[in-house]
User: What shape does this take?
Amino acid sequence: MTAAPALTRAARNPRPLFEDAAGDIAVSFEFFPPKTEKMEQVLWESIQTLAPLAPRFVSVTYGAGGSTRERTHATVERIVRETSLTAAAHLTCVAATREEIDAVARDYWDAGVRHIVALRGDPPEPGTRFQSPAGGYANAEELVAGLKRIAPFEISVAAYPECHPDSVTRIADLDNLRRKVDAGADRAITQFFFSPDCFLRFRDEAAAAGIDAEIVPGILPVSNVAQTRKFAAQCGAAIPPWMDRLFEGLDDLPDARKLVAATVAAELCARLYGEGVRHFHFYTLNRAELSYAICHLLGMRPTGKSKEQAA
Assistant: This one.
């Protein structure tokens, strides 16, 4: 009986994960409005660090119940005023009438903002079900349609690879996404996930359901698992057990946590890249280093400058 040939060295050692990463990607970054002067400084240092990567846009989140409305607006206006970046503002349906939301949207348009991330939003009280306020938009589909009536905004909406917690079935969840696209959404940005197959399966299901809008994977570089669990509970994302193991014993080693976080997220992006994904959206948590490192590994190099840097 002939013995099986020994594996060659090349077969034992696959090609490097980032060998083919050519920088032929486009990215966007998400920030949240700062609460303090120190947090504002960190935010603007992050924006200045990421600006040379020439993102398609940078978005600023919107707190539950409109709790960050003024800070969100101020942050977005400053980005428009002081940088060459395309700013996108989040808007939700929570705790506001249609007239109030429409007024905010008009203010954004007058300030030069042309891109909105339109979301139903989470209930102000965690654990409760969403209820549309009297005179408010009932859901993101209605919000998208309302925004398009105000002005020709570019609109991004949310998508849920692992199904939104409020959706009865995956089919119902996909139907909801299709209605948002039919109402005028230009693209969908997914909530974070940690398995490339999770996104690829969802992308195939969306295409089979007749959803032809661009679907962009949302990437969250995780350095704090406990914090991520809180986020995951709100959006129906699963955190695999192996991730807990990777961060064990690193509570007092922040630099090591960053290295592990960058490694995990970079591998996820590399595998998506290998499947043809060329657009990525990063949830930065107002920190630039991890997102910048991942973009660098994917072959991106500084090309753009903010207005302040160009001055």
